[in-house]
Amino acid sequence: MKKLMTLVLLLAVSSMSFAQKNEIKAIEKALKNSNFADAKSAVAAADALVGNMDDKMKAKFYYVKAQALYANGTGTNESIDEAISSLDKLKDLESKMGKLKYTQQANEMKSGMISSFLTKANDAFNNKNYKVASKGFEKVYSLSPKDTLYLYYAASAAVSGVDYDTALDYYVQLKNMGYNGAQMQYFAQNKETGEEESFADKSTRDFSVKAKIHNNPRDVKSASKIGEIVKNIALIYVSQGENEKALASMSDARAENPDDLGLLLSEANVHLKMGNKEKFKALMEEATKQDPNNAELLYNLGVLAAEAGNLEEAKKYYKKAIEINPNYVDAYNNLAVTILEGEASIVEEMNGLGTSSADNRKYDELKAKRAELYKEAIPYLSKALELKSSNIDAARTLMNIYSVLGETDKFKAMRTKIEEMEAVAGGN
């Protein structure tokens, strides 16, 4: 009786092994004919038997399963995720076995997948298909976790596509892993053109310098992306009404990096987004002390002062910004606007006067005061127009000023300029 039972057991094991081999052969046959639908069906059948496979057969199954689900890049996102997982299981299994029969093929398959996903993600991003781009970059990262830059790209694409939940997930992953994002960049000057050029890596740059094609090599470390990441996490929390989480995120980051100007500015932006203008101003002033030659910081302080009605303070900040950056168009524009803010009270007072001799004298005084205001604003408007020839608002303001001042030739010239701008805009 014992012999009979043993024979039955052997027959059952043989039958199970035969079924496993048949299912795997069915997957291979379907793959050979690029019939991925049948291959996927065969995978589903084989999955039910995987618990009884020996390690050698299981490794082979993981490999063909990945091929079937990936389907040369045509599989669904869920199927491709499962294909990547299957390749990881294969590599882990063979590593434990100490026999790497399919690992090399799995690595080659992964390399092909990375190249394909990267091309599609870049194309999608350039075509503003941000959802596809984000998923593609995330796939590259999942295939090569050491390349954390692609998770950062995935998060950035998600933000561009207004998919804030996905972006938040990726950014939190980056923050938790301590992602910095700072990279070394390699430059050298082209001896023939005199132009500085960047290189993909140090060895390529050094070879070109050695070949005397380039000279004056220099290495530059790009700025850390921690500030941007934490800022975006906080801003997404703000958009979700999670203000406390937003501030906690900023607080944690700044505690770890108290001297990081980028984080300081990020916290200021979060407060501005939340409507905390006083806190924003305080942080911006702190930032200005850290970086007194930052024109953008001074410009932002000017905007805040103007919004609060502190026009003289606003003008002071705008002028400082222009001293640092003489080509700061917005600073010229805003400085002119701030100067012209004083016109309203003058006109109101003029309109309230009567017809007596005293009122007439006062009217002339106010008219002269308004003219001085216009003359003070003209150089800044002219410079803004010079720096940005399409600045139609500056041109219109100048035209109106010249009209009031009675400078007919300048009025006509500006009117002609505006007509040319409008013609160009209409042609576009």
- CATH architecture field of the domain at 228-320: Alpha Horseshoe
Indicate the mean pLDDT: 86
- Output the strand order for the largest sheet: 2-1-3
The structural class is: mainly alpha
Major sheet description: 3 strands, antiparallel
Question: Can you describe this structure?
Answer:
This protein has 428 residues and is mainly alpha-helical. Among the domains are: 184-221; 228-320, Tetratricopeptide repeat domain (Serine Threonine Protein Phosphatase 5, Tetratricopeptide repeat); 343-427, Tetratricopeptide repeat domain (Serine Threonine Protein Phosphatase 5, Tetratricopeptide repeat), CATH 1.25.40.10. The chain has 20 helices and 3 strands. Strands 2-1-3 form a 3-stranded antiparallel sheet, covered by helices on one side. A hairpin with a 5-residue loop joins β1 (184-190) and β2 (196-199). The longest helix is centred in the N-terminal third of the chain and has 31 residues, at 2-32.
Briefly say what this structure is:
This protein is mainly alpha-helical. The protein contains 20 helices and three strands. Among the domains are: 184-221; 228-320, Serine Threonine Protein Phosphatase 5, Tetratricopeptide repeat, CATH 1.25.40.10; 343-427, Tetratricopeptide repeat domain (Serine Threonine Protein Phosphatase 5, Tetratricopeptide repeat).
Question: What labels describe this entry?
Answer:
disordered N terminus, 75% helix, 3 strands, 3-stranded antiparallel sheet, single chain, Serine Threonine Protein Phosphatase 5, Tetratricopeptide repeat, mainly alpha, 428 residues
